[in-house]
Amino acid sequence: MSISYNKVILVGRLTKDPEIRSTMNGNNVANFRLAVDRHSSNDQDGTDFIKIVAFGKQADFASNYLKKGKLILVEGSLHINQWTDRDNIKRETAEIWANRMNFMETKKAQEANEFSAMDITVEEGFSDSDRTSRNDPFEEIDDELENDALLEESFSDLENHLSSDDKPI
């Protein structure tokens, strides 16, 4: 009798949003890649991009909650797919079939990441026409100075208050 055990545990970040497909039976299948840092004693550090496949409830979880950049733990088993391509060349690929997935960041850290990404989107999508159409009560601030004399005058007052030891060389 032979004893064997096939279990893989990975912690990494999604490289893009999961791709969701359905089987002929209507079951969902999620595919995504996980970027996992590799640390080794022989200076072969790097990042591995590992294909993850999730079925059923795990695929539904991936579809609803996983997004690019999320740090997750995946527990599953290693599967080697082998096939012969059109040119009659034997090929194989490794993938992890997920049994369990957990978030590895706190809810607060996830919300902070989502909030900062939302800020970028808002900034990129904001235009002056949006401001006027919303009847924004705040005055518009012009970032360009029309008269540099005002700026020079402000700094000259500051310079007069500095002692001779504090003045720049």
Automatic annotation (TrEMBL):
CDD domains: SSB_OBF. One of its GO terms (molecular function) is single-stranded DNA binding. GO terms for cellular component: nucleoid. Gene3D superfamilies: Nucleic acid-binding proteins. Keywords: DNA-binding. One of its GO terms (biological process) is DNA replication. HAMAP family: SSB (MF_00984). Homotetramer. This is Single-stranded DNA-binding protein. It comes from Petrotoga sibirica.
